[in-house]
Amino acid sequence: MLENTILLDVLNHKEVPRPPVWLMRQAGRILPEYREVRGSLSGFKALVQNPELASLVTVQPVDRLGVDAAILFSDILVIPECMGLDYELIEKKGPVFPKTIKSESDIDNLLSGAEAAEKLDYVFQAIEQTNARLEKRVPLIGFSGAPWTLMCYMIEGSGSKTFSKAKAMLYRQPQLAHKLLDKLSTTIAAYLKLKIKAGVHVVQIFDSWAGVLNKELYKEFCIPYLLKILKELNDEVPTILFAKGAYFSLSDLNYCGSTALGIDWTLSMQHVRQAIGDHKVLQGNLDPCTLYGSPETIASNVQKLVGEAGRNHIVNLGHGVYPDTPLENVISFVKTVQAIQY
Ligand code: CP3
C-alpha cells in the first residue's frame, strides 16, 4: 500500500479532500540537482539508458517539490529506437533521426510488438529501481508517445512546426500511414504492458502533435489506434490520455476508454466540463507561463482552475513545465494546490 494515494483515489473515483498535483516534465531541467547529474554524463541518452541514474532523477521532484506522483525519467523516442530507428538528442535543436521512414520497405523492416518492446530492458529496470527508491511514498507514472506523435518524428526526422512531411503521408499514401500506425500501436501496447508489469501504477499517453491535424484526420489516423492500445491495456492500471491541441476531437477522445483526459491550456475547463460532463477525470490545465507570475497570481489562477474543473480533477499544467521556470514558483504552485480543501 502506498503512503500517498490521492492520485490513484481520484482516478478510481474515490472521495478526496483536495485535488492531487504533479507537473508534466517535472523530472528534468527545472532542478539544479538534475542538471548536475545530466552534466556529469556524455548526453541525454546516457541518462535515459542508465537505470540507476534515471531512477535517481525520477525521484528528485518528489523530494524537492513534494508532488503527489513521480513520472519515470525517460523519453517517448525509445519506441522508434527499439523498432530500429535510432535517435540522437542535439543540444538546443532537439531530437534528430539519422535514418527516417521513406518507403514501404522501411516500414516492413521495423521490428514491432513485444519483440521490439522487450529490448527496452533499461526502462523496466529503471521502474523497479525507482519504486525501491520511492519506498512507497507516491505512485509512479509510466508513459508512451501516441502512434501519431511517434510517426511524426519517424517521418520528419526531427521536430517541426507543421510536421508537413508526416501529414503528407496521410494524404498521399494513407494505406502506408495506417501500416506504420498499426505497427506503432502494437509496439506501444506491448511496451506499456511491460511497464505495468515492472511496476508503474498509472500510464499516460502523450499525443503531443495532435494539434497539427483536424477532426477528420484525427478520427481516421489516431482514434482507432488509441482505442486499440487502451483496449489492450484492459484497465490493468488507470490511464491518462493527453492529446495536445486536439480541442476539435474532445468528444472522440472521451470515448477512447482512458480513465482520464489531459487538457492543454488553450481550453477553458468550464468549456470542457460542459462538453463532456462531470464524471470523467480531467487533468490539467494551467498555462505553464502562469508559473512566471507572482505567488498571488499563481494562487488566483489555481483557484479559478479548481473551481471550473470541479471534482474528478488532477491539477497539472497544460503542457510541460518550461526549463527556465523559477523553482520557488513551482514549489509555491504545488503548495497552493495541496492547501486546497474541497
Ligand atoms: O515528464 C517528465 O518529467 C518525464 C520525462 C519526460 C521526458 N520527455 C524527458 C526529457 C517525458 C514525459 C518526455 C516526453 C516527451 N519527449 C514528449 C511528450 C511530452 C511533450 O512535451 O509533449 C516529446 C514530444 C518528447 C520528445 C523530446 N525529447 C523533445 C522534443 C526533446 C527536446 C526538447 C526538450 O523538451 O528539451 C526531448 C528531450 C528531453 N526529454 C529532455 C528531457 C528532460 C531534455 C533533455 C536534456 O537536455 O536534459
Draw up the topology in text.
Elements: H1 6-11, H2 32-39, H3 44-48, H4 51-65, E1 70-71, H5 78-83, E2 88-90, E3 94-96, H6 104-108, H7 113-117, H8 121-134, E4 140-145, H9 147-156, H10 164-172, H11 174-198, E5 202-207, H12 215-221, H13 223-233, E6 239-243, H14 250-254, E7 260-262, H15 269-276, E8 281-286, H16 295-309, E9 313-317, H17 327-338
Bound molecules: coproporphyrinogen III.
Coproporphyrinogen III binds at residues 24-29, 38, 44, 71, 73-77, 89, 94-95, 143, 159, 206, 208, 320.
Summarize it:
The protein is of the alpha/beta class and 342 residues long.
Describe the structure.
The chain has one domain: TIM Barrel. 49% of the residues lie in helices and 11% in strands. It has 17 helices and 9 strands. The protein has a 7-stranded parallel β-sheet with strand order 1-4-5-6-7-8-9. It has a two-stranded antiparallel ribbon with strand order 2-3. The chain is globular and about 55 Å long. The site of coproporphyrinogen III (CP3) has 22 residues, from strand 3.
